[in-house]
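Title: Request for sanity check on DUF1918 domain-containing protein prediction

Description:
We are preparing a figure and want to confirm that the structure record we downloaded matches what your pipeline produces today. Could someone re-run it with the sequence below and paste the raw structure tokens into this thread? We only need the token string, no images.
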Amino acid sequence: MRATEGDRLVQHGRVVGQHDKAGEIVEVLGREGNPPYRVRFEDGHEGVCSPGPDTEIRHRESMTRH
């Protein structure tokens, strides 16, 4: 999984009724775009994440094409 600053990180809910949690990657702490990432979530909370299999990266370039 690779990302750059400005990409979106989406953690999908793992339990029925649990909502997805999304945020903007504000800093890439790993080498060559690899985790961990500092993420600012939509609720204003900021944290360091090492994404698991329930997470996807939505790259900034692909979001602007639509």
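Thanks, this matches our download. Residues 58 and 64 are 11 Å apart (CA to CA).
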